[in-house]
Amino acid sequence: MRIRQLVLFSVLFLFTLSALAGDGKKYGKDLTVKEKTAIADILKNPQKFEGKRILIEGEIDEVCQMMGCWIKIKDTTSTEAMQFKVQDGVIEFPKEVKGKKVKAEGVVSVKITSKEDLIKQGEHEAQEQGKKFDPASITGPKTVIRIEGEGAVIGE
Q: Is pLDDT of 81 > 90?
């Protein structure tokens, strides 16, 4: 009788551990930041977060179609979204992750990007996404806010 109880307890214990550990597929480094930051808060006051390591949570709205080097994460509590960019070749997000839940950690980057660089970036992204791009849509420099990604966990 005691052996059955011990076996049952062991099975339940292992099941619980696997359920807690298995909250998604890991990409890159382990997540270490415990407190989540809302994407809307970052976009509302980017200078407050610039250079800080943060954790965001949301749904993957877009994925780089060429190398999987970035994902666009949409905040589930608002309509706000931001890019989570990783170093080329370090992490590669599969195209199939679009629409999945994600927890992502990295450092907030706030940079003013020139008109010329925005046009190059727009042309590159249009090629990646198979979309058309009109360079005339870029009228001047822009402040680009994104997360320099280090690690992510993508769920179902």
A: yes
Q: 108, exposed or middle or buried, with CB in 10 Å at 0-12, 13-18, 19+?
A: buried
Task: Say if residue 17's pLDDT is above 80.
Answer: no
Instruction: Write the CB contacts of 136 (distance below 8 Å, at least 6 apart in sequence).
Output: none
Q: How far apart are CA 29 and CA 47, in angstroms?
A: 25
Instruction: Put residue 49 in one of left, alpha, beta given phi > 0 → left and psi -120 to 50 → alpha.
Output: alpha
DSSP per-residue letters across 65-78: SSS--EEEEE-TTS
112: pLDDT strictly greater than 50: yes
User: Which fold does the domain 25-154 belong to in CATH?
Assistant: OB fold (Dihydrolipoamide Acetyltransferase, E2P) (2.40.50)
Cα–Cα distance measured from residue 45 to residue 51, given in angstroms and rounded to the nearest whole number: 13
Q: For the stretch 53-92, what's the b/e string if a residue is b when 16 or more beta carbons lie within 10 angstroms of its beta carbon?
A: ebbbbbebebbbeeebbbbbbbbeeeebbbbbbbeeeebe
Provide the strand spans (E) within 37-100.
Answer: 53-63, 70-74, 81-85
Q: CA 58 to CA 112: how far, in whole Å? A: 25
Domains of the chain, by residue range, sit at 25-154
Alpha-carbon gap, residue 84 to 101, rounded angstroms: 14
